[in-house]
Amino acid sequence: MGFSRNSTTPVQEVKANLSKGKDNLSKGAVYLKDAGVAAAKGTREAAGPKVYVMLTKVGLKKARARRWPWVAGAIGAGIAVGGAAAYLWYRQRTQSIGESLLADELLDDAEEGPQITDEAINQELIERVSR
Question: Contacts for 5-9 with beta carbons within 8 Å, 24 or more apart?
């Protein structure tokens, strides 16, 4: 802007830029928006933890609950359930082994002494189990 006839005012420059293409203005607006987003993100990352601590101290926000007690409880419950299942399996297995040993003993006794029929074996098993 000087004293020459060819000097333009700022309004004339903006109109000239608009007439040349709106591309420069739209790029500038996008640049400003991106700069604002980056500044906001940086501010949130820098000030967020401090603000959270202050809100917690003032009592406006609750502190996060700890997760490790839940994990420890879940592991303990899993161990208890697994132990109970293993004990039941062991008991059932030993009971079936005991029944088969009893049947073998009865059969061995039958071979040595007088002949025992299947009905007698069943009766003997019932009597020994019910005791």
Answer: none
Token representation of residue 64: 């996060």
Say if residue 55 is in the same domain as residue 70: no
What φ, ψ does residue 4 adopt, rounded to 5°? -85, 160
Q: Going by C-beta distance under 8 Å and a sequence separation of 6 or more, which residues neighbour residue 7?
A: 1
Of 45, 64, 83, which residue sits at a domain end?
64
Q: Which residues, in sequence order, are CB contacts of 128 under 8 Å at separation 6+?
A: 102
pLDDT number for residue 29: 77
pLDDT digits (tens, 9 = 90+) for 6-30: 666 776 776 766 666 566 667 777 7
Read off the tokens for 83: 């132990």
Angle between helices 23-58 and 10-20 (to 10 degrees): 100
Residues 54 and 85 in one domain: no
Place of tokens 């025992």: 116
Contacts by residues 53-62 (CB-CB < 8 Å, ≥ 24 positions apart): none
- On whether the CB atoms of residues 125 and 102 are closer than 8 A, the answer is yes
